[in-house]
TrEMBL record:
Keywords: Kinase, Serine/threonine-protein kinase, Transferase. Pfam families: HATPase_c_2 (PF13581). It comes from Actinoallomurus oryzae. Gene3D superfamilies: Histidine kinase-like ATPase, C-terminal domain. Residues 13-137 form the Histidine kinase/HSP90-like ATPase domain. It comes from the Bacteria. This is Histidine kinase/HSP90-like ATPase domain-containing protein.
């Protein structure tokens, strides 16, 4: 996917709460970019990739102690690119082990995140930056959009625009 017209990166503490924040952030951006037809699918994919990143490197205990947080808390990064043909989602975490697509059947309660990413996106993959960790990415095109439901009005759901920074990727995520 070429011709990136806008790039937005967000660094998040690797905690379970990152998932809903990331999803709402993606919904907000897609609405702003006029890509409402991709918003639901993108939010679903962002949820799956951020959940995986948090599981890989995050503190997932329900009630972590302060010392746990001090010693183990790390960050992950979500980047969204807007292109004329759609969007690219990238999630970075510090673990170099890549995702592994599982063969989950309909009775499995887990193991279908990557299957879903594969089914809903044009293509997906991962890459290892020189600075460590990995980016898991996927590309969604308007043409292939299989929107779960059309977005109508996300006004009440939006994060406060003042909290959203559109900053160059290198200023947020050095990886
Ligand atoms: N960011 C990641 N870092 C390391 N391993 C990952 C990551 N994402 C996924 N994986 C691996 O790929 C497997 C499949 O992921 P997924 O399809 O989302 O299923 P689930 O998360 O339910 O196990 C995970 O069980 C995990 O072993
Ligand atoms: Mg998963």
């Amino acid at each position: 996917m070429k011709d990136v017209s806008e790039l937005n990166c967000l660094r998040l503490a690797a905690l379970p709460s990152a998932v809903s924040t990331a999803r709402r952030h993606a919904e907000f951006l897609l609405a702003r970019w006029g890509m409402a037809s991709l918003a639901d699918t993108t939010a679903l994919i962002v949820s799956g990739l951020v959940t995986n990143a948090v599981k890989a490197v995050g503190v997932v205990d329900e009630a972590p102690s302060w010392s746990d947080l001090r010693e183990r808390l790390t960050t992950i990064c979500l980047c969204l690119y807007c292109c004329p043909s759609g969007v690219v989602v990238e999630v970075w975490d510090s673990e170099s082990r890549p995702p592994k697509r599982k063969e989950a059947d309909e009775r499995d309660e887990s193991g279908c995140g990557i299957q879903l990413v594969e089914a809903l996106s044009k293509q997906w993959g991962y890459r290892w930056p020189k600075t460590g960790g990995k980016w898991v990415w996927c590309e969604l095109t308007i043409q292939d959009a299989r929107s779960l439901s059309s977005i109508t009005d996300s006004g009440g759901e939006l994060l406060d625009e003042r909290l959203i920074l559109t900053i160059p990727k290198e200023d947020v995520c050095t990886n």
